[in-house]
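Hey L., structure's done. Input below.
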Amino acid sequence: MEKKILIPSNFTKHAWNTLVYALNLYKNIPCTFYILNAYEVPVRISLKRNHSAELEAAKAESEKGLQKILQGLNFRKENQKHKFETISRNENLVEAIQEAIDTHNIDLILMVSRGENVSINAAFENEISEVTEKVEDCPFLILPEQMQELPASKREIVFPTNYKFPFKNKEVAALVDMAGNLKASIRILYIDSDGRQLTKEQEQNKEMLETYFYDVDFSFHKLTQTTVTTGIHLFIESRESNFLALYKRKQGFFSKLFSQRFKEEIDFNPKVPVLILKELE
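Output:
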């Protein structure tokens, strides 16, 4: 089945690298890549006469940048089944992304985070946090700024959960899909911070994940006597895992899986690409 992938671009080198990463990620999959540039031209009441000219100039610059990307893609032939469409919008980024999702039925959004780490914490104000917090009904894959290539081997995705809440099949579909595309393993990680046995409900939710991950390689893991964030970091580092998947509830990342009692647990900025799964109605 063809995938529809949305890639916001501000025409930087890192935005181009994200696009190349997406081409490699879906190297053997038929895809339509939607390349989005969002720009904002605010209306200034005192300068209404100039607004139309400013809008036309910004639109022309946006469309020129998108056409330049298409020209660059002409030199890449990873997959003849890859198609590309461009979207230019005079809107803020959140609105433009949500409109693209609703219009084109997007399967995944790829974005790049500034710096070596992926800053996804809503407790701090940045573009990635705002977009992943406000955009609904679509998963994200957030890349560190310098990430350009897929790991050559031993690909595995760490998926932490406390088993307290049931998942819908379609909420983890992007994780299963990514594991299949990458031929990667899923390592389901439970952090037992208080030494309690799983409740009956937790056991049922755990068993449900087994049915969802039936077609991919997966395993269950448990860490004790550590905080959630420290445990995830240690697990990823000790195994040299390549990816992290997080399930984002509408209440926010840290309201259920993470505790906000300690600053250490709020400061969560992994160095691997992060797949953000969204809670769906």
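The two ends are 23 Å apart (CA to CA). Residues 48-73 form the longest helix (26 residues).

-- N.
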